[in-house]
Amino acid sequence: MDLLYSVFIDPFVQMAEMPDFLLQVLWEGFVAGVLYALIALGFVLIYKASGVFNFAQGIMVVFAGLTLVGLHEKGVPAYLALVLTIGVMGLLALAVERFVMRPLVNQPDIILLMSTIGLTYFLVGFGEFVFGGEPKQMITQELGLPTGSSAFEIGDGGLLILQHIDIAAAVIALIMVGVLAVFFNKTRIGRALRAVADDHQAALSVGISLNQIWAIVWFAAGIVALTTGIMWGARSDVSFALEIIAFKALPVLILGGFTSIPGAIVGGLIIGVGEKLGEIYWGPLVGGGIESWLAYMIALIFLLFRPQGLFGERIIERV
Amino acid sequence: MRLKRLIAGSILAGTLAGAALPALADELFVPLFSYRTGPYAGSGIPIANGMHDYLTMLNERDGGINGVKLRIEECETGYDTQKGVECYEQVKGAGALLINPYSTGITLQVIPKASVDKIPVLSMAYGLSAAAIGNTFPWVFNPPDTYWDGASAIITDIARREGGAENLKGKKIGYIFLDAGYGREAIPLLEQLSETMGFELLQYPVPGKEMQNQSSQWLNIRRDRPDYMVMWGWGAMNPTAVKEATKIRYPMDKFYGVWWSGGNDDAAAGGEDAKGFRTLNFHGVGSDYPVIADIKKYVVDAGKSQVDPAKFADNLYNRGVYNSMLIAEGIRKAQEIAGKPMITASDMRNGLENLDVSEARLKEIGMEGFALPMKLTCEDHSGHHKVYIVEWDGKDWQKSGDWFSPDVGTVKPLLQKAAEDYVASNSPWPERTEPCLNK
């Protein structure tokens, strides 16, 4: 009976007793979800265009963040460093297309996956060689991003604390999703990209350049990685530990579908809010620390009912 | 055919490059396990620089120790236990004088091996706390303090601020820790103190993969409202925790870190908001010591260091210097006991066990005021020496208060018991056969 009370009643009593804290948990979950969604977006972009699970997305986040801060440390003004970093991500996209993707056209997916693992190790080594292994502080203020926090009184002495950088992260993520949605649906390149995603050979037959599309999509994933690096770096710092965080996007992808941009956003938010609520209100029942696997549990439950994810394309096998 | 040759050549070259070369007859081989890459590099780099630079300074200034040059070789572990064990296997047959693992996880793995291979393990203020019991662990040394000393010292300081240990009854003390061998090491002692002193111990583990994603832990802390927080963090966990603490507006003067949470970059992540954050320390901060001046002159200015000049003499850099001082003084003592400058790992064990760094000796080596005198014995491989608190002033660490002793009365019997438990669970553990020279 006690167990039933602890699982089904007590957490909701706690929520009702401390509404300010519940709001804080929901906000933190929302922010984490936005950041997971940003990482997942990078994966989705490349998967849509090439069917490749880009194992290197995490290290691209670190690499972009380190390039930005590293350039600024060398005396480059923040905004110029930002522009140059975008340029570096563009060069990286061209190099990946030319030296990794192009030679592997028509190879099985597993080969392409392995190539992104190789790319990961290359970027880790290259990043450490150029920038060193020490973590760097994100140049939040120099980029004009807000710092500090605002506190709001809720109820009787309750407090909701909102970090300005978290608000900025949410706004920037929404803008980025909007821009990507317009890019995919309203531009010629976007439509070409969707054609490639649907069928490589059919796209080639109507004159779409696969190489060009891949370079563009890796560049877009690079921009998403840079945004993620800035936002997550501002919350802690830019270090190689961030690479591991990127795999928090896996359950998001399972949930939202590997090919859906709205899926990445909704999946990110469900995972972010779900894992925070689970950890705070139900975690203590099993000694805490459930956050790291709860996201996968949520995703696996969804898999049972929708193997293609919430927004993924329905898999129809005709026999 | 050419491709085959190329592959075979590459494998051979890689093997040779990765292997530690045997020590030459006229040099002493000091391997340093370090991590300049990976998620823990933020803590590993300054320490590796400090360790390397002190030993290099001895080579440059004095021509080594008693006329014998030191061969200093780093082995990159990435703070990964498996890689650390590989490093151990690489250096053990190459004439290594000692193992300096710089990771509690690696230390725990090499303790049983080192006892068989007869190579001393120096785990300076980390590793297995029970290894302080020299009669059980003759090949392991953890001066100047164990983790249990550190945990008891923090509780001692909290009790002092609360006006006595009796006032801790009913208080809540939170413990946020890296969920690994390192972070879990202090828990038995804290649980014991919680039981005897009557404070409630709240635990907040941080998985290694979530080091930069601690908002859940700090939300729990905000809800539980512990009176004090104690942190056992490392690598990227430290700056993230400091930032999260400032985010929930936790009173930073009630937030304590063990000595490994005291990197300059760790606290700087919180900037001005982190003012008041306190960590333990057992050596000087800053550059105002003759030994640091000599390192600058002979190593840094001579272009023989990897340290970023802006980070020279940071807190963790000085920690590395202190670590290498223990190595160097151990070598000196070993040479003295052996009566010859060329020593073996077995001699080195004697040197460490008879380590006695007096006030006069500290002055000779330019460390007056940098460290307190320290002494080890056959029974006590840690020494349980005094520590002090440093406080973050928004820009740098400042000494706060005097040196004070850990709760040795509580710690020592618990260590003895833990050593007995270790032997029981690792049976058959070898009886000590090494002679004691300082009875």
Automatic annotation (TrEMBL), chain B:
Database matches in SUPFAM superfamilies: Periplasmic binding protein-like I
Name of the molecule in the record: ABC transporter permease
Keywords in alphabetical order: Signal
InterPro entries: Leu-bd, Peripla_BP_I
Chain ranges of the Leucine-binding protein domain: 30-394
Family: Belongs to the leucine-binding protein family.
Domain of life: Bacteria
UniProt keyword annotation of Signal present: yes
Species of origin: Hoeflea olei
Leader peptide range in chain numbering: 1-25
